[in-house]
Amino acid sequence: MVGMKPSDTPPTLGVKFLSAGTAACIADLITFPLDTAKVRLQIQGEKVASEATKGIRYRGVFGTISTMIRTEGPRALYNGLVAGLQRQMCFASIRIGFYDNVKNFYSGGVDTANVGIRILAGCTTGAMAVSFAQPTDVVKVRFQAQVNLTGVARRYTGTMQAYKQIFNHEGIRGLWKGCLPNITRNALVNCTELVTYDLIKEAILRHNLLSDNLPCHFTSAFGAGFVTTCIASPVDVVKTRYMNSPPGQYKSAINCAWVMATKEGPTAFYKGFVPSFLRLGSWNVVMFVSFEQLKRLMMLGKKKIEERS
C-alpha cells in the first residue's frame, strides 16, 4: 500500500499474505451479522425464500437482525461463519496481499503507478482470488440464506457436509456456481476498494492532512467502503441470488439479472444497500486498520529476529 516512507523496509509477500488473511478474518468476525442481514434482504422476494419464511418480513438492516434473533436465535446471525473465515484466508490473502506485487509488475517497478495500472492490478488479484476461493463463498452464502425455523428443512448441517453435498448433487460446477458474476463483482470491488483506499490515503499524506496512522487508515477505509458499495451492489445482489438458487431456477447469472429486472424492477439491484454499506464500510475500516498494524508488527518481529541471528 502507499504511504510507506523511503526508509521503510517493504513487507515481504509472505507477510502481506498472512497479515491480509488474518485482518480479513478479524473484520469478518466483527461484521458477519451485517453480512448475513444483507444476504437475507437480497434474497427476499424469491419464491423459494418466500416459501421458507412465510409470515416473516425483513425490513432494514437492524430490523432484519432483530427479526432473525427473535425467530431463529442469535446464532443464526453467524450462519456460515466457518466457511466465511475459510473464504477470507484464501480470498483476502490473494486479492489484498498480492495487490502491491501485481501493481509493481504492471508498472515496471515505478514508485507511483497511475490509476489505470492500479485498476488493472485490482481487477487481476480480485479475479484470481475468486477463481481459487469460490467454493467457500458458495457455502457461506447458502448457510447465511438458510432459515433455522422449526418445521423448515435445513439444506445443510455442517460446513464440510455442505461441500460434500453440493459436490454430490451438483458436481464440481455446483461448487463454482456463480463464479462469473462473482469474478465480475469482486474485480469491481477489489479495484474500487483498493484503488480508492490507495488514492485517498495518498492524497491525505501528500497534503499533510494526517500522518500515516490510525485516523488516516480509518478515513481512507471508510471512503473506500462507500464508493465500493455504490458500484458493486447490483452485481452483488445477482451473485447472491444466483449462488443461493436451487438447480434450474435460473439459466445463468444474466438470466437471474433479467428476471429480477422484469419482475421486481431496477430497485431490486440495490436491495440490501444499507447493510451492504454498513457491512462493507465497517469491514473495510476493521480490515485495513488491522492489516496496516499487523503488517508493521510482523515486519518489526522479523527485524528483531534478524538482528538476533
Automatic annotation (TrEMBL):
Superkingdom of the source species: Eukaryota
UniProt signal peptide: none
Subcellular location: Mitochondrion inner membrane
GO cellular component, as recorded: mitochondrial inner membrane
Name of the protein: Dicarboxylate carrier UCP2
Species of the source: Esox lucius (Northern pike)
Keywords in alphabetical order: Membrane, Mitochondrion, Mitochondrion inner membrane, Repeat, Transmembrane, Transmembrane helix, Transport
Function: Antiporter that exports dicarboxylate intermediates of the Krebs cycle in exchange for phosphate plus a proton across the inner membrane of mitochondria, a process driven by mitochondrial motive force with an overall impact on glycolysis, glutaminolysis and glutathione-dependent redox balance. Continuous export of oxaloacetate and related four-carbon dicarboxylates from mitochondrial matrix into the cytosol negatively regulates the oxidation of acetyl-CoA substrates via the Krebs cycle, lowering the ATP/ADP ratio and reactive oxygen species (ROS) production.
Lineage of source species: Eukaryota, Metazoa, Chordata, Craniata, Vertebrata
Membrane protein topology class: Multi-pass membrane protein
Family designation: Belongs to the mitochondrial carrier (TC 2.A.29) family.
SUPFAM superfamilies: Mitochondrial carrier (SSF103506)
Catalytic activity: H(+)(in) = H(+)(out); phosphate(in) = phosphate(out); oxaloacetate(out) + phosphate(in) + H(+)(in) = oxaloacetate(in) + phosphate(out) + H(+)(out); sulfate(out) + phosphate(in) + H(+)(in) = sulfate(in) + phosphate(out) + H(+)(out)
GO biological process: transmembrane transport
UniProt Solcar repeat ranges: 11-105, 113-203, 212-297
Complex formation: Homotetramer. Adopts an asymmetrical dimer of dimers functional form.
Keyword Transmembrane helix set for record: yes
PANTHER family: MITOCHONDRIAL DICARBOXYLATE CARRIER-RELATED (PTHR45618)
Gene3D superfamilies: Mitochondrial carrier domain (1.50.40.10)
